[in-house]
Design brief:
The protein contains two helices and six strands, in the order H-E-E-E-E-E-E-H. With 103 residues, it is an alpha+beta fold. It has one domain: Jelly Rolls (Sandwich). Strands 1, 2, 3, 4, 5 and 6 form a six-stranded antiparallel sheet that branches. A hairpin with a 2-residue loop joins strand 3 and strand 4. 16% of the residues are buried.
């Protein structure tokens, strides 16, 4: 998927504008979850998302989608990864927490 198609998809599904996320090479984030829904488009490199034993390898042009509170792991390839990510918060209280964590 290209960036324009991804931005159109986000708008159609009422996701906010994405941010650029850069992760270092050979990074591993053990089991965790987020309180918000995530849609992302890989721009460069590789990220592997593992949900319940099902591993998805995402390269440039690939997208991934995480539901709120979905437990997963993340690992990056030998060149790291750069991706666009948008987070949709489902209730106002969670949105306040996310904003506080960003500041």
């Amino acid at each position: 998927m290209n960036q324009n198609a991804f931005l159109e998809l986000l708008e159609k599904q009422k996701f906010p504008a994405p941010v650029v996320v850069v992760r270092e090479r050979s990074l591993f984030l053990d089991h965790h979850s987020h309180q918000y829904e995530v849609m992302a488009l890989v721009i460069e490199g590789q990220i592997d998302i593992n949900i319940g034993g099902a591993k998805k390898i995402c390269l440039a042009g690939d997208t991934f989608h995480l539901l709120p509170n979905q437990i997963h792991t993340e690992s990056t390839g030998t060149k790291g990864v750069k991706y666009l990510a948008s987070r949709k918060v489902t209730n106002l209280e969670e949105e306040v927490v996310v904003q506080e964590l960003e500041t």
